[in-house]
Amino acid sequence: MSWKCSDCNRTFASWHSRSQHSTARNHTPLDFDCRCCKRPYASSTSRKEHEAKEHNHCADCNRGFDNANNLRMHLHSRTHRGANLKCPFCKTGFVSATGLAHHLEGGRCTAAPLNRDMVYKAVRSKDPDGVLTKKLIGWTGSPTYEVNGNSWNGDAWECYLCHRDFVSRNGLNQHLNSAARKCIGKGFEAG
Questions:
Q1: Same domain assignment for residues 109 and 162
Q2: 136-143 own/partner pairs: CB under 8 Å, 24+ apart
Q3: For residue 116, is it within any domain?
Q4: CA neighbor of 85 nearest in space, from 75, 98, 66
């Protein structure tokens, strides 16, 4: 391994000789050691770049990763980027616009007065030429579910998947069509 002086580009056989040269010539010292391989660097920025590139290491968190992709995902996470994009309805923070769109379109925002169908309808209305919504030409909206007579267990309207009882057929229908439901399937028909 050789050590290069960043000021005069002279190369040295050891770090010690490079350090003596820097001190004698009043050049940039190598005061920043890599936390993984102990190689010295002239600045924290150059050390940080080396650690990320060569060791998949996040200098800010002092944490190593198995591969470059895991490091990249970490650097793009809310840990480093923050969650500065707020939902206009519930004020939950998101790292990206994609995360916010997923939150709203998936019906996960309980405070939002809209759902995926309403969002798609609004986008289509603003895109009459189909530039953005080209793939949605045949889309007819999300399915709705309605219970049939098989959902009556003799005492109540029962969700066959989670076995929760409802006093009215309408209550079970609301359960099946809510964004919060965890079940879908047996005992009712798509309508």
A1: no
A2: 141/117, 142/115, 142/116, 142/117, 143/190, 143/191
A3: yes
A4: 98
Measured CA to CA, the distance from residue 191 to residue 189 in angstroms comes to 6
Q: How many domains does the chain have?
A: 3
Q: Are 115 and 94 members of one domain?
A: yes
Nearest to 9 by CA among 22, 20, 34, 1: 22
How many angstroms from the chain centroid is the CA of residue 19? 44
Same domain flag for 74 and 10: yes
Structure tokens belonging to residue 65:
């990763």
> Is residue 164, in this structure, part of any structural domain at all?
yes
pLDDT, greater one: 189 or 45: 45
Give the number of residues written for the chain.
Answer: 191
Q: Range of 13's domain?
A: 3-78
Across 55-81, average pLDDT: 89
pTM of the full structure: 0.41
